[in-house]
Sequence to fold (86 residues):
Amino acid sequence: MNELYLGQIFLFAYDRVPDGFMRCEGQTLKYQYGDSLHALHSLIGNQWGGDPSKQEFKLPDLREKSPIPGLCYMICTGGSYPPFNS
Fold:
């Protein structure tokens, strides 16, 4: 697999955030129609919180879910929209 898909969650062995990723720390994000965060919201919705009337959603908080201390979960915010097979 060479392509990154929007919304994929990866476990990194370092704390530096690569381009096109955000840490999964439960942060609230605001989106505007047509931007990349709007596309991410269309995939994950308000599953982890946020206020849709304010165009806000939250990323999952996976800080305590790491199998080994020092590893960091990050979500892809700059990849392609995943294809869906029906």
User: Anything to note?
Assistant: The longest strand covers residues 72-76.
